[in-house]
Amino acid sequence: MLSARPNTINTVKAALGPISRRPAAANTVPAFVSPVFRSYASAGITEPLQRTPLYDFHIKHGGKMVPFAGWSMPLSYGDVGQVASHNHVRSSAGLFDVSHMIQQTFRGPSAQAFLSHLCPTSVASLQPYSSSLSVLLNESGGIIDDMIITKHGSDNEFYVVTNAGRAREDGEWFSVQLREWNATKGKGKEVEWNKLEGYGLVALQGPKAGEVLQSLTSYDVPSLKFGQAAYMDIQGAKCHVARGGYTGEDGFEISLPPDAAVTIAEKIAFSPGVQLTGLGARDSLRLEAGMCLYGNDLDETISPVEAGLAWVVGKDRRAAGDFIGSSRVLRELKEGPARRRIGLEVLGSPARQGAEIFTDDGLTQVGIVTSGIPSPTLGKNIAMGYVQNGYHKKNTQLKVKVRKNMRDAVVRGMPFVPAKYYR
Ligand SMILES: *[C@@H]1O[C@H](CO)[C@@H](O)[C@H](O)[C@H]1NC(C)=O
Ligand SMILES: *[C@@H]1O[C@H](CO)[C@@H](O)[C@H](O)[C@H]1NC(C)=O
């Protein structure tokens, strides 16, 4: 695990008892928070929560800390509400701590072949210093996790970011697969897997993100396009910066070396136009952008074709089918999946995770909502869910059962809010 500053944790623990009982890490999560936050929250209560290198920084700046995926993370800051915070990112810029995510490298003469074995992406056609969304699949084609893969200077070196909530499952998967790889196909050209322990990771997102980053580096920021990555000097530290994010806005994910994490975060957070932004706004922004949250919208029973992520399956990979889980993926590409992920607009009241989706006559259940919110940007209730194949076409009229009421719902294209990537 990416366990930052274990010494601090132990010292505090000794002084105060279990961290979960500290007021700063209260185990109460407001009702508006997506259920996955609450389920992660309850799962984390018995174990001491991990802290990112920015934990003290959050406390100092009014972070309302909640347990998330085993980590103590800011839900919001001070008295800035979730909607105001969300709107600020869409109109200016927000800084998010995403250091709980797992940053790792895969290096070695067969690193490209190893990752190609593990995921359906055309890893071989990725340009140097460019990234792609991808998925780890189990033997049955179910999604173990979604991840971002970045190729560095050569085919022998990759930087991969996976989800905190899947750290245990991903870790076991990578270990087992790598052991086998090193002993068989990768023998003599082994792959080394390293987690970036103690590093921070922040996301700077919003229309002003480019301007803000440019004010802190001499690197020519406009030369970096969406989906590209580079090392740049920020306040004297060499940082890995990837242009992209989880909000649909222009933005950057900036990896912070342990010694410089707090200084750089401070510098960005207090640049003109930037607001610290917590998990609450992160969830509403990503849902408007049509992006999946693992645990809500993705799990091990769902395939990339069902999830509307068939585009991550590279063209060359379809012909060869030489990746784990390929038989289901190739079959579904050919014959269509049994169910599909859709976007929904729900009239009347917001549908939440678990709400049942019915045919328009209200008689037959055809699916389930996996995420739903009142959209701050659109002023409508939006949701994501899965329905049986055939009910997924845009403008299909459906019903969603919200508490005891059947609400009208319409299938909508995603993203709900158009993306504004810098290309
Ligand atoms: C893949 O995950 C699904 C869902 O948990 C499970 O049913 C299936 O057995 C898994 N397949 C393998 C080969 O592990
Ligand atoms: C694979 O090989 C690399 C390079 O020799 C080694 O560092 C690593 O520990 C091996 N990993 C496994 C899981 O065998």
Automatic annotation (TrEMBL):
Pfam families: GCV_T, GCV_T_C. It is found in: Mitochondrion. It is an enzyme of class 2 (transferase). InterPro entries: GcvT, GcvT/YgfZ/DmdA, GcvT/YgfZ_C, GcvT_C, GCVT_N, TrmE/GcvT-like. Substrate binds at residue 253. One of its GO terms (biological process) is glycine catabolic process. Signal peptide: none annotated. It comes from the Eukaryota. Keywords: Aminotransferase, Mitochondrion, Transferase, Transit peptide. GO terms for molecular function: aminomethyltransferase activity; transaminase activity. Residues 339-417 form the Aminomethyltransferase C-terminal domain. It catalyses: N(6)-[(R)-S(8)-aminomethyldihydrolipoyl]-L-lysyl-[protein] + (6S)-5,6,7,8-tetrahydrofolate = N(6)-[(R)-dihydrolipoyl]-L-lysyl-[protein] + (6R)-5,10-methylene-5,6,7,8-tetrahydrofolate + NH4(+). Its EC number is 2.1.2.10. Residues 54-316 form the GCVT N-terminal domain. The glycine cleavage system is composed of four proteins: P, T, L and H. Belongs to the GcvT family. This is Aminomethyltransferase. It comes from Naganishia liquefaciens.
